[in-house]
TrEMBL record:
Source organism per UniProt: Ancylostoma ceylanicum
The keyword Transferase is annotated on this UniProt entry: yes
Alphabetical keyword list: Glycosyltransferase, Membrane, Signal, Transferase, Transmembrane, Transmembrane helix
Keyword set includes Glycosyltransferase: yes
Subcellular location, principal: membrane
Annotated protein name in UniProt: glucuronosyltransferase
EC number: 2.4.1.17
Any one GO CC term of the record: membrane
Topological category with respect to the lipid bilayer: Single-pass membrane protein
Stretch forming the signal peptide: none
Length: 203
């Protein structure tokens, strides 16, 4: 895709991985929000982090969202599918990235199908025209807290739980005990059946 300029955030400083590609620009950091606001940006490729997802939604840009299914970053998969649900993105899995043609076809689809851009802009307009903006909501909650102070009825019950209850250690312990008991009983039954079988052969 020589007619397309790629701006790639790459973690390795001074990498020469794309030196032979004049249309690929690498850097360890880019002003992401400023790039998303640039009208020349057509598609944004992201792993679906919360910051990127929020900026994408507000700037109204379509995206290719990489869903890696990594438990440590469980929100990324949800964020990716949330944007795709609004019609402003396409989700690719880690396995899809093994096929360069798949990524190329996905990018070309988003370049040529204006519905992705239109849906992304529509989501941005919806966020900008909410009945109560995020700023107003924050101010009203602060005013409410200043007026009424700390209210026990709004205090999360989780704050009153013990360490064992909060981390479900009692439940985990019960499950472990059940598993150990099942294994123990199964082992005893197996030993018993084996001894009976051996005894029968001897007889």
């Amino acid at each position: 895709m020589p007619d397309t300029t790629f701006i790639w955030k790459y973690e390795e400083e001074g990498s020469q991985i794309a030196d032979h590609l004049p249309n690929v620009h690498l850097s360890t950091w880019f002003p992401q929000n400023a790039l998303l606001a640039d009208p020349r940006l057509t598609v944004f490729v992201t792993h679906g982090g919360l910051g990127s997802t929020t900026e994408l939604a507000h700037q109204g840009k379509p995206a290719v969202l990489l869903s890696f299914h990594i438990p440590i970053f469980a929100d990324q998969q949800r964020n990716a599918h949330m944007l795709a649900k609004h019609g402003g993105g396409i989700v690719l899995t880690k396995d899809d990235l093994e096929n360069p043609q798949k990524l190329r076809e996905t990018l070309l689809t988003m370049f040529n199908d204006v519905s992705y851009s239109q849906n992304a802009k529509r989501l941005s307009e919806m966020l900008l025209n909410q009945p109560i903006s995020a700023k107003q909501l924050l101010i009203r909650h602060c005013e409410f807290a200043a007026k009424f102070g700390r209210l026990p009825s709004l205090d999360p019950y989780g704050r009153q739980l013990s360490f064992m209850q909060y981390f479900l250690l009692d439940v985990i312990l019960a499950i472990i005990i059940v598993i150990v008991m099942v294994i123990y009983v199964s082992f005893r039954l197996f030993r018993r059946c084996s001894s009976i079988a051996v005894k029968s052969k001897k007889d």
